[in-house]
Amino acid sequence: MVNKLSLKIGMLFFFVILIIEGLLYFILYMNLAGERIEEIINNLLARGNTHSEVLEDNFEATTLEHVGLMESASEFVVIITDEAGKILVHSDPVQSEMTEVIERTNYDSIPSEGVVIEERWKDRQFIATDSPITINKEHRGHVFMFAHTNQVKRVLDHLSNQFLFIGIITVVLTIITIFILSRFITLPLMKIKRATEQLSEGNHFIGLHTERRDELGELAQAITSLSNDLDRLKNERNEFLASISHELRTPLTYMKGYADIVYSQALTDADLKEYISIIREETENLSILIKHLFELAKMDQHSFPIRREKVFLKQLVTSIVDLITPVLEKKDVALFVRCPNHISCYIDPNRFQQVLLNILDNANKYSVKGGEIKLEVKDSDRYIEIIVRDQGEGIPKTDLPYVFDRLYRVEKSRSRKNGGSGLGLAIAKEIVEAHDGIIQIYSEQDVGTKVIIKVPKGEVIEECTFNR
Ligand SMILES: Nc1ncnc2c1ncn2[C@@H]1O[C@H](COP(=O)(O)OP(=O)(O)OP(=O)(O)O)[C@@H](O)[C@H]1O
Ligand SMILES: [Mg+2]
């Protein structure tokens, strides 16, 4: 429960906001309280000053009594003394704290106007002011005003209650807002969590809403595309397994069939030799297939060594032509090569031989008898380009995007007429890309196919491991 994101976010927000609000309310409260206390004190002082002004105009017993009478009806207390501190009039009973204040007053130094003489409202019963009575520059007496500190405390209590009320409302509103906000953030996360659970259970149609234009929307989009990728990978894996089992089963069926015949029947020497040679051929095919699969697996693990060196393309092409010519001759396919002597680049010659042999082998396999293949090598400042064109059957448009996929063959029956397993172009692509190059294929059915390889010339001499 405590680990729930909504709760964590909510609590974090709540405490942060609570601290901010508390601080702001505290400052506001202190300011307001200070203002209210000052207002009460000033009011008391102004009252005392008014009385002293009246008495300065008319310092008589009746006026003195009148002032005392007036304040006896109010919540304030007035005590009027003579210039030496002797009490002349008081509006209410004189309390000990009042006597103490009066006695404490220094009657030798007379303030020119009223002063606050007691403002410790927290500790005392009364706050007090002193307004001197001066007639014709002669010091005649003092008007002491007292206000009960209960008054101040009452005002502050009222203020505190108001703040408490507002504070509670604010906290409630904050909690509601945070609850809504955190749900707003966490609900989509919960949905995403459920979707990923579905994903791990193997259900790829997770139906996440990806319309949101914020980070959560992006996350939902990323997960949706991940689920599509997973789905694609799953299909690819199934197809791969189906193809691979077909590729393995066919030679094994042949081998077993012929081995059975050899084992169980009395054969002539010629038949025996033929059957054994078929078994050998199938074994050869099988080991090539396994070698290719193993190479691809190593490429996937980035542990496929690429040993680059300076290679003159002319030399490489010549050695490849020597290797492929006997195969081409069988089908009467002509190979035209154009490769300037000077072109060189830093590549792994063995790997490139493998690539070009496969491309030429494809061109030959899918060419008609007596067809033509052209191999051209060109260079620019940064790239060398190797182009192989044939006039064979071509590749249908719908298949073209997939020919670099592992085990992909246009011919779905995977007939053994042309013998390929559909790994050649996949390996070629990996090798070319390991050289930071690109491989492209263009084809038109019944017109022919063109394969273009572009590799940077580079200056890398050291040995490096396959690295995509
Ligand atoms: N020049 C081409 N003309 C027509 N189809 C081609 C050509 N090159 C490739 N293809 C098609 O692309 C598919 C994949 O080619 P790839 O070289 O990967 O496999 P393969 O030649 O069938 O088998 P492998 O190369 O493993 O022996 C081929 O099966 C073929 O259908
Ligand atoms: Mg091939």
TrEMBL record:
The record's listing under InterPro entries reads: HAMP_dom, HATPase_C_sf, HATPase_dom, His_kinase_dom, HisK_dim/P_dom, HisK_dim/P_sf, HssS/ArlS-like, Sig_transdc_His_kin-like_C
Reactions catalysed according to its record: ATP + protein L-histidine = ADP + protein N-phospho-L-histidine
Primary residence:
membrane
* HAMP domain location: 183-235
Instruction: Tell me which stretches of the chain form a coiled coil.
Output: 216-243
The regions listed as transmembrane in this protein's record are: 12-32, 163-185
Q: What is its EC number?
A: 2.7.13.3
Superkingdom of this entry's organism?
A: Bacteria
Q: Which GO terms describe its cellular component?
A: plasma membrane
Protein localization = Cell membrane
Asked whether the UniProt record includes Transmembrane helix among its keywords, one would answer yes
Q: Which Pfam families match?
A: HAMP, HATPase_c, HisKA
Descriptive protein name: histidine kinase
Recorded source organism is Virgibacillus salarius
